[in-house]
Amino acid sequence: MPWLQMKLDIEPQKAEAYEDLLLALGCCAVTLEDGADQPLFEPELGTTPLWDKTRITGLFDAETDLQQLQQGLRTGHQQIAPDNPFPSYKTEILEDKDWEREWMENFHPMRFGERLWVCPSWKEVPDPTAANLMLDPGLAFGTGTHPTTALCLEWLDAQDCNGAEVIDYGCGSGILGIAALLLGASKLVATDIDPQALQASLDNAQRNQIDPKLMELYYPDKMPELEADILVANILAGPLVELAPVLAKLVKSGGKIALSGVLESQAEALMEAYQPWFDLQPATQREEWMRLTGVKR
Question: What is the DSSP-derived secondary structure letter of residue 26?
């Protein structure tokens, strides 16, 4: 069935109150998004920041009385922010679609470097002789479509992974670590703070018929002491800087590291954090995102 969608530009500190208001007026789903194309960096512990200009979207049954909804919003606004003008908004009708099927039809096999393909599990592989990573993203992000993931996959394709022990730190869907195994790595240690990510990594490893003996999954605080030949970490700049001593300890002398999830403006701080342990190569950029690589001294 079709849906009535309403978008309002609001003050971020009032987001929770407007969310409650929309739900009270019969909203089926609420989302918050950036209203001004503003990067939102990782938060400090215990905080949930929002963009300076926040847009809240409510999805209503198409049969909802628009005039009554608008009146309810104005009444609620008088209680939430009586001294502010009513926020700008727009409404539109969304035609019903099978969104999952549409997404599946538009997710195509992608090539990274010379040997590596990432293929949807429901489509045929373009090159049966290549290293084909069959992927079903599920709940965890990481399909290869984001520039940071693509940068890491291309870097892995260019490495000699044969017999290497690899750590995927912040594994998400497991795409990077599983790619390393398909490229010849002998062991993968994957870690993430999100239990859904660990489950998705396990599911994707099974989908790619990875020998369970080759892959170990841990929460970061449960990882054993080890030194890997290759470590990849595609997370965020703040955690990467804080984790520099930890990640450096996990790489053996002569081992390689690849870091991504970093904006151009953050690359210099990241390089400074890792220079005490690594000889770093010039950063590689795709769109506004960077990949930093190096060899441990």
Answer: T
pLDDT digits (tens, 9 = 90+) for 96-134: 665 556 555 667 888 999 999 988 877 888 999 999 998
Rounded Cα distance, 26 and 69, in Å = 9
Cα dihedral value 174, 143, 116, 260, nearest 10: -70
Tell me which of 3.40.140.20, 3.40.50.300, 3.40.50.150, 2.130.10.120 is the CATH number of domain 109-296.
3.40.50.150
What is 3-96's CATH topology? Alpha-Beta Plaits (3.30.70)
DSSP per-residue string spanning 170-201? T-TTSHHHHHHHHTT-SEEEEE-S-HHHHHHH
CA 173-145-181 angle, to 5 degrees, is 45
Which residue, among 235, 149, 148, has the nearest Cα to 193 in the 3D structure? 235
Contacts 24+ apart (CB under 8 A), 98-101: none
- Where does 108-247 show beta strands of DSSP type E? 110-112, 116-120, 131-135, 165-169, 187-191, 215-218, 228-234
Q: At residue 196, what is the residue type?
A: Q
pTM of the model: 0.69
Rounded Cα distance between 221 and 223, Å, is 6
Provide the pLDDT confidence category of residue 236 given band limits of 50, 70 and 90. confident
What is the residue whose two structure tokens read 């099974």?
A: 206
Most confidently predicted of 63-72, 119-128, 209-218: 209-218
HSE toward the beta carbon, residue 181, CA cutoff 13 A:
26
